[in-house]
Amino acid sequence: MTTPKAPAADATLRLLTFLASRRSPVPAARIAEQLALPRSRTYDLLTTLVQHGYVMHLEQERLYGLGPAAQELSGAYLRQEPLARIGRRVIEAMVDEVGESGHLAVLHGRDVLYVIEERARNRPSLVTDVGVRISAHLTASGRAILAELPPAQLRALFGTREDFTSRTATPGPESPKDLRELLTRVRADGVAHESGEVTEELASVAAVVHDHAGWPVAAVALTFEEARTSQAVQERCTSAVRAAAEEIARRLGGRRPETPVTGG
């Protein structure tokens, strides 16, 4: 094995790569063991990465996982290749088939970031334009992704009442307990819903996209005027987002996780 010319950079990248391969945060001792690093050096690297936001430290559990800065890099990659390119044609076909506006979003910290927006003809404009960020707990796309996260990561993102916000007069979940109960229903249904919590009179349904590691990398959603949309069309939207999410995952080489996520 070739000796790296920049040992500190090599150790840092190996550490981030290891965390990215885990489905949930891990203790520092396991990181040191797996990477064959001295514990003191491991803690020094972790401290620096935490300061810069690339790693998050769950102090109560004494665990470490990827932080929002690392997710931002991942989101930037996904906005360019391959997710946006692969997803665009699938979203366009879904919108043409159903006649309702659709979008593709990724998780960005506590928010969802919209990377594709396709508005159907004669449908109202949406706030979910490309580049817009909205708190994940309010959106169908965000709920679809959050439902697949490990419990420790969900607690790190939405662990207190102060982490919850609202946009309209229709309240979303307002506490960690509310969110856990909602996400339990999402996992049971296989799709996520929101009704008037992002924009009054509009509702959405979304399904999660898994990557090659079984990670919830994105979500596909359709948005419609709830009062003017028949139950049959709403059910058609549900089927359409499921199919679109599965198609994008197939093109990404994605798969469902071997161990289903449970509430925590």
UniProtKB/TrEMBL annotation:
An example of a Pfam family matching this protein is HTH_IclR
Task: Output the superkingdom of the source species.
Answer: Bacteria
Q: Which UniProt keywords apply?
A: DNA-binding, Transcription, Transcription regulation
Q: Which residues form the HTH iclR-type domain?
A: 6-68
GO MF, one term, reads: DNA-binding transcription factor activity
A single GO BP:
negative regulation of DNA-templated transcription
**SUPFAM superfamilies according to UniProt:** GAF domain-like (SSF55781), Winged helix' DNA-binding domain (SSF46785)
Q: Locate the IclR-ED domain: which residues?
A: 69-254
- What is the protein name stated in its UniProt record? IclR family transcriptional regulator
Record organism: Brachybacterium avium
